[in-house]
Amino acid sequence: MENPNEFVEWLRSVAPYIHAFRGKTFVVAFPGELVTAGALPVLAQDLSLLHALGIKVVIVHGSRPQVEEQLALRNVEARFHNGLRITDIAALECAKEAAGELRLDIEAAFSQGLPNTPMAHAAIRIISGNFVTARPLGVIDGADLQLTGVVRKIDYDTIHPILNAGGLVLLSPLGFSPTGEAFNLTMEDVAVAAAISLRAEKLIFISETPLMKDAGDTEIRELSSHQAQAVLDSGCLPADSAFYLQHAIKACNAGVPRAHVVPFATDGSVLLELFTHDGVGTMISYENLESLREATIEDVGGILKLIEPLEADGTLVKRGRELIEREIHYFSVIEHDGVIFGCAALYPFPSERMAEMACLTVNPEVQAQGDGERILKHMESRARAAGFNKLFVLTTRTSHWFLRRGFVHATVDDLPKDRQHMYNWQRKSLVLIKTL
Fold it and tell me: What span, in angstroms and rounded, lies between the C-alpha atoms of 385 and 39?
């Protein structure tokens, strides 16, 4: 390894995600196109890694290209209505054939265990069964969809113990009625129903579609479900992407905290989406993922992790855990998907109607993305709301950043009297003041 330190830093940086995800349920759904593209073995390795990290994984596979192949072999015409397959008896037999073949391929992929491969010593058990109860869709706009169905129920009582026992669960796009009939389902419908029923933390669609873009050709990285609905209503998305987004919105509105649509064309896309700040796909949540708020005592650990490197190199004055705990009500944090990525503190000097902003810190991994600017504006708003008309900072290394944002040079004599007494003449920090 050329750079062990870089590896160590990377591994430490993903630790908060590992802690946050352990014991949670993820529903991972992928289309038949992924199997056709030969990406199944690598996906099995990545999902096995999630399993090894203590994440409960439910897999839902699609089968559209495989069903099309079976229909062609039998000289049966494929029929659709509004993007949904009309499933007659012949088409259902093709769907069963495709699902059976895919199930065996997926089980084989998770049975890999050669030494010197990511699956070595994995010993994963993947379990499938009649876990999906379905009903017919019926007649829609005058078209009888016959044996095309929709999920009625996911067997939570059976699946939950399997996950708790360390097994992976595999769901096919087929469902069964209490009368013994089989129905052809969409992978997206099964995945959403499973995520809702199993109270999954995340629903992840690994799609054949590229990263979504809005009408202005800008990449769509994060959306609340309300914003996603507006994008969907705008009609700017291709039909396949819109279908994924529609189901992601449905899942979030029904209580799934996060839904992701990730292109499988990117190697390791699931890992990149889950363990990096920006990910490689589109993330939808019921509320905005990023939270800029006043800190609580639970944030002390995250704040310490942020500021310790800057304290070590002398950029910030050292603060111990006890001091931060006492002063936590002065702090604000910017949180992304449960991880603290930035912070700052606002210390009041009421008699002079001034406030000091201190400890402004943003994780180096996400700098240059505007988080520092957002924190600054938030602290300015806090200061105004408290009745202060001036905000000042003391800095040794970032004066230019503040000067570009409206601060001006000042002297120690311009500080509040109490702050003048606490000024550290050895550090010789520059004084910058901004009128609010």
Answer: 54
